[in-house]
Amino acid sequence: MRVSVLDTSPIVAGSTAREALQRTVDLAELADELGYHRYWLPEHHGMRGVASAAPAVSAARVADATKRIRVGAGGVLLLNHPPLVVAEQFGTLAAFHPGRIDLGLGRALGGPRRAADALNPGPAESFPGRVKELLEYFADADQPLRATPARGNVPEVWLLGSGTASARLAAELGLPYAFAYHLRPAEAAAATRIYRETFRPGRTLEPSVVVSVAVVAAVTEDRAEWLARSVRAKALSRSRGERILLPRPEDATVDPAIGPGPVLAGAPAALRNSLRAVIAETGADELMITTPIHDHAERKRSYALVREISDALPPRA
Asked: Which PANTHER family match (predicted)?
């Protein structure tokens, strides 16, 4: 089973955005060495705990620092950008790194209402049309307006989502589909089923599904649960309407009644079973791992452990 990385460039307690972005490059180099398939960077705005705000810029740096791994946006929030500019940016990336660039497209605004107001996004109903316009810039046919760097330099385009509407649009356009299981696991089975049932060949001839999963891996169950205290504390703060940076486990305030959300924490054997269950539930062709651990060395170890078990994960039935 292919595994990939979704990295928000988290700003953990006691660190800065600059340090978070430097850690992203370091983690990408490790992921490349370990044999992860792709490395995606999301677009978030006005979020004090997330440094990944400019995925095109971060993707350029990560692609320069790595050799084999695919790199891209997971994703560009297209309501915030003119499709022409996105095509030019990712066409340029694809020209510098042929065969290695991905372009995931999302409908969300990527931040709190104040950030959305500053971005002045387009209306939500314009999203399907913007996706189609963007795809036209990468087409071979002559267009009235050319996105010049995009001609002949085409990234792998994905549609991102966390519900059935995005699944239907991906199927209609014949695009591969990435589902945010780490955000809305209850919607996953229905969305991925609808996508496969309604898929029409387009830019891809067969349906393809990536599912993003939040994972905290450690050598022992106790250690994994200890590391997961950080994300449990963040879940508790969200339930209280608060926003905190990911704390150190020893500083984390947790409530046993409030779980960490859809985060899989455990030792390799237990995680193998948990990930198998996700694959069976969603029909995933590939898993994209996001890991909310405070300590960077522990986070890297977690990704190494997941990669060790990934070859034992079954392909989609």
From this structure: LUCIFERASE-LIKE MONOOXYGENASE (PTHR30137)
